[in-house]
Design brief:
- This protein is mostly helical.
- It is built from 4 helices and no strands.
- It has 2 domains: about 60 residues, no CATH class; about 35 residues, no CATH class.
């Protein structure tokens, strides 16, 4: 097996039953959520899962970013827009174009 295949097998072995229990009434599958986990966080846990306990690997992969300092150039929500003073900037930041 490749390093990636080994890691995916480990992920499914560690979390597969819990994932399956949580997705019973959804269109998701264990394979799909494993693929997302690999795509989003494998660069973190791929080198650690064989040497650290599962709870430590999980802790490293799941961070609380709500309290993190954000770059002021990027808006977090539409509520951060000042409706009149920065309307065009807000719309651009949200991926929309303002109409003239």
């Amino acid at each position: 097996m490749s390093k990636l295949s080994d890691a995916m097998a480990w992920f499914k072995g560690q979390f597969g039953a819990q994932i399956q229990a949580g997705i019973q009434t959804t269109p998701f599958s264990v394979d799909m959520l494993t693929a997302i986990a690999v795509q989003e966080t494998f660069e973190i846990w791929g080198a650690l899962y064989q040497s650290l306990p599962v709870d430590e690997v999980l802790e490293l992969c799941v961070g609380d970013t709500l309290d993190a300092q954000t770059d002021p150039r990027f808006l977090r929500t539409k509520l951060h827009c000042s409706p009149r003073r920065r309307a065009r900037r807000c719309l651009r930041s949200l991926g929309k174009r303002s109409s003239r």
